[in-house]
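Contributing new records

If you add data, match the layout below exactly. Sequence lines come first and carry their own label; structure lines follow with theirs. Keep one chain per record. Anything else will be rejected by the validation script.
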Amino acid sequence: MANIRFVLFILLAFLCFSLWQQWQIDYGPQLPQATASGVPATPAAKDLPETAATIDDVVRKEPVRPEVTKATGERVTVKTDVFDIQIDTLGGDLRILDLRQYPVSKDQPDQPVRLFDDQVEVFIAQSGFLGEGQTAPTHHTVWRAAAMQYQISPDQETLRVPLTWTSDDGVSVTKTYVFGKASYAIALEHAISNQSSSEWRGNQYVQLQRTDTSGKEKSQFVRSYTGGVLYTPKDKYEKISFSDMADKNLSRKAKNAWVAMIQHYFLAAWIPPAELESNFYSKDLGDKRFLIGASTPQTVVEPGQQQTVGATLYAGPKLQRVLEATAPGLELTVDFGVLTVIAKPIFWLLEWFHKAFNNWGFAIIFVTLVIKALFFKLSEASYRSMANMRKLQPKLQELKERHGDDRQRFNQAMMELYRKEKINPLGGCLPILVQIPVFIALYWVLAESVELRQAPFLFWLNDLSARDPYYILPALMMISMIIQQKLNPAPADPVQAKVMQFFPYVFGVFFAFFPSGLVLYWVVNNVLSILQQWYITKQIEKPVKALA
């Protein structure tokens, strides 16, 4: 029993150390990024999708386009209640996108999170057409803006930002971004007007270009995923990492599907029209830059006719209910990992209690109570086993003194005593093992849910996603672990007993860097465990004292 418990403590310590390393990635100090120059990254001809839309069931390769030599076009600024955006007239790209309602930190409330950027670490959204032997506007084309500044007014539900392109032979395309009030979904419309004497054919593509930043965190056991994602009805949620893109270009056809680039708390996803069978692709551009995107089937516009094709861009926080309403499977970008089946009900409970109390800290406390109630019987069996083991401590000590250093005879006598007293030495461990997946799932819920990002609780705890600034919760957790150790039977091995005496202090150091929301859960759980274990121990030891 003592050996097994010792191993469990070691495994739990390893888990906590891994989780602490993950939290350091998200909230620890970041190294400054070096750059050769401050000039915004310019998309080259190779930035066009290597695999374009399907034509007669054959995926063709586009010829290389002439490279645009102009570094950047003019910038159209767009302001909504959730966005500050810069659109470049060169390509019509979304190059800067700030999330106004999400500050970088509590200490920098006026500095919003910048999701899209075209400086050192490129992350931009692009779109255009691939023409079949015809001139078509790509993300290398210069578009004409009707105005250079747009801002949604309080009485507006939508804001339309048009850019136009016209060919020499009378084909014009109007690219319009449609922004909604309080919405992170941006509609893209490409309106094609063919005033030429022949039909026009082209394939719309939408893509995300991003610098690989995932290699910064080296030698980490666990980390939040940064990279590409593909969702199809057949294969569901599939990670397309930067290394996958470097190894092989993606080429997949599907309806009702989407692609995205995700990171901790935020994402950008292109969602083509669900009814169209789009071709999804990726490409390694070199210099640690990658594309992931989609191209729709060929659009044919007869002379004198007009046609519109579009897509939806979601760029913003991983708000689970919003993502569910935006596209099928988009909520899976909130990556709870293999324990999603456990994590989702936990998040649902957190959300329900948050609606009741309007405070994520109280939601965590009441979720802890629910989890403790669900595992009450398992915990009871565990604590009864520990209490019975504790009751046997005098007899075990007597056996140890009798057999001295003969560990083999001592172990045999100890097992015989367990059989005689009908005690299962695994009884206190198995219930703990069952609960470990729930603890890990809760960690990922607290770590991945943007709803808890910078959420205040009470008094000094003004951000449940950050560590306790005064280390009060880690200290309380350490004290609670010491009390629990006093209630548990001491290991028979004196070396193990001494090592385990240090565990509360080791855990206290680890938890000092954990998000305060997780430490809050652990403290409440420990207090409830202490009360339950104390009561059960007293009930079991009571008859012994009565006989004395």
